[in-house]
Queue: 4 jobs
Job 1
Amino acid sequence: MAVDAHTERHRGFSIKQSTVIDANKGVTWLAILILIAAYDQWSNGIAWVYFGMHGGYGLLWVAKSRLFPDKQWEERVGLAMAAATMAGLIAYWLPAWLIVSGNAGNPEPWLVGCCVMLYAIGVFLHFASDMQKYVSLQLRPGTLITEGLWGVVRNPNYLGELCIYLSFALLALQWAPFLVLALVFITVWVPSMRRKDASLSRYPEFAEYKLRTKLLIPGLV
């Protein structure tokens, strides 16, 4: 009798995607602290700003995962996919290494302030939209969410993440973090958003909802 690949995978090692992601996000602050210590950058103000931003985001993500989890991360994956996911998430730590190792640019105070503002906007969009989605699905299962942040764009959570990771890249003032973000955006985020649109097309009201909203950025795309 034939055994499909999904069943075969679960006979060996498997782990929830959320466990892998939470593990990485939860130790981000520690990884940055270790880098600061390794390079003896205790007086590097930009490193500490980055520590607060990225480290804080990681802890907020873990809290979100416990309080209003996203079902898409509950799927179990095999060792190869878990390792690939962890490697991809570790790539997000690149700005931290650039900043503490002296390979980053030297952002002006006004740019640091703009980065913090962009980060705050991103945190609001990301977590508020995920909370809205979680509560809406709890109270109105099987209903298309077309109001609130989801009435502005169809992927406010991804827009929030884009703002967050752009703030990290801008703080480093180096091309490599932008390249990492672009690769993730093209290979992971865009296909995920397209798949979600295809899935939501089963709702009769989706056609009208799609016409009056943008995929990611209000008024643009």
Job 2
Amino acid sequence: MVLKVREVGNSLGLILPTEITQKLRVGAGDKLFVTETPDGIKLTPYDPDFAETMEVAEGVMRRYRNALRKLAK
């Protein structure tokens, strides 16, 4: 699939076909995150920083599971 870069005011933009927005599960007003990878650019609706933070949090929760359980009581 080829997308054409267009002028949008003083910026440049792309129009994403419906098929792509459905696969990304995004609609008007949603945010997309752009990440540089060794293979090029990745476009995703998920915040990679948030995902990384959640991985760290899950590790802490696993490690201190018993202490967290006691605190929750």
Job 3
Amino acid sequence: MKLSLIIIFVISSLVSYKCNASSFEWIDSKGKYSDLVHGKRKIARYVYEKMNPSDREGTYKPFHHIYQNDNNDFLTKGAGGKYSHHRGIFFGFSKCRIFKNDTEFANVDTWHCKRAYQIHEKIVEEKVSKNLASHTSEISWKLDDGIVFISEKRTLSFSLMSDSSIRVDFKSLLSTDFQKVTLDGDPQHAGFQFRASNEIAQSTSNQTYYTRPVDGKDLPGQTKNWPKNKDMKNLLWKAQTIFLNGSSYTTLYLDHPKNPKPSYYSERDYGRFGSYFKSEVTPDNELTIRYRLIIGKNERTPIECKQLSTEFINSI
């Protein structure tokens, strides 16, 4: 009798473990977006609908959303609202100069997508497991006449931390067939950036606060930007805390020392922050950049931010 009870208990425990051992999964809505889920929890969405001239503003760049913990709404911003070109987790430069035969061929903008746009071509690789999910998309940076001047391989990897925060690793590889493409802009209009939900701009921007390596946690509503604030240069990390639907969310932005330097930082109380750098891409010199975002409901102290920065640096 005791042996039977033990066997039943072991079997039931194994079944329960199997049911609770959630794995990541990509769920694709063909031609529109792909959702990443972990069990019943929604993690992220890759929005990749191809550029449609009749809806240029809504489709001129692929980007990633992050879900709020309610499993329904996004923590990040899509098209429309305050500064429509801001899109969740996104990457671009307002000044892209393209050279051919020692002459400037074109000068375009992949931040506001003027005279150019970014378009998803295909998923190159997709991986899922219990603890990690990633995908690599091929993205073309095109002039409005369709000429490709940058080919990008953009990889995002997702994992869950012990406190349920979402860790996002961003890697981008840029190449070109042109003689040279220079990448430039300014801290507010170029680089790797994060934009929180438009609801922040509408109702809670005065509660947004930033935590920085130099001066720690700032007061609500206070922001710092290069070049006015000279210490907003070559930072290894910065954290943003916003308030949305009665909850607070903190996003820790981690820069890697191997990324091009100098890097210049900016922040806004409505939830857009990040950094940019100047660089160039040639056929013989591809450009690779890496960043990490850690997004969750827990506030991060400067000590925690520094420790997580060190972990990121040592992981590459």
Job 4
Amino acid sequence: MTLLTTILGLLAAATEGPVGGGFWMPRQASTAADVVDSIFFFILWISVFFFVLIVALMVLFVIKYRRREGHESAKTATHNTALELTWTIIPLILVIIIFYVGLRGYVGMIQEPRNAYEVWVTGQRWSWTFEHDNGAVQTNVLTVPAGRPVKLKMTSTDVIHSFYIPDFRKKQDVVPGRYTYLWFEAPEPGQYQLFCAEYCGTQHSQMAGIIEVTAADEFDDVIAQKANWIDEYADEDLPRAGLRLYPRCQSCHTLDGSPLQGPSFRETHRLWGQKRIFADGSETVVDENYVRNSILNPGAQIVMNYPNVMPTFQGQLKEREIRALIEFIRKLDEVVDEQGGPRE
């Protein structure tokens, strides 16, 4: 396969831009990107070659064998063994080569190394949640080490999503009720875009995130800090800690009064202490118990005119983080302005 690998590399180099990005592709930021791009350009150039060849022959034959006055039509050939073998054997060989290199690349992309760093991923409308083994939980930002394989174990709480990192050439469906897997290795530190590539509802375009690749010698300290960041806040600062947690809520709850899939944390008036009327006709006052129950058991009390789509955060938030969100909502006017931005 040395000759074939060389051919693939030359074809890719002829069209591909630098590793930082090019005309055809985004930058190559994982160990799998070069393999995917090489196969893509191999198939592309085969297609270009035969397109040009067929169109050129078609134009040539149209001109050369056009109908002319005074000339009788030649008898149409019905069989040519050499020609038929040629246009059968050559495409067959090319298809076998494409199948082989494609299968070889695919197997390499689904078989993760044994020393992979593992992360649990939950997709939900319309955000990504990442859970590390040390207890760190991130939303829409995934921090991973550079130069080390990373395995993602993924599931969905509602509908089918698709985890897609263009710079890594990696994409995998995320399905409710089961686990799917994806692995990658990013050699260099940097930030890379993450998207949901499966239409999942009205806020589908907002279901994006960042893969944050950290230098290997710094990763352990960084992820340990992310696991214990809430402890850095004093009790009086918990509302601002809640503002830091708010991105986990922002796909459904706004801060400026505008409704999404869920009610805004600030409607036409201050939310805290006001009555909530539920779909079953019952009502309650917005207080610590109501907010806590809404976080851990959101299906128990559905606000009137809103769907029951919020997933539970049971087991995803520490007790102090729940308190931070409660204090954030209680003191919302002290933390954010009327447009939903943080106060200075």
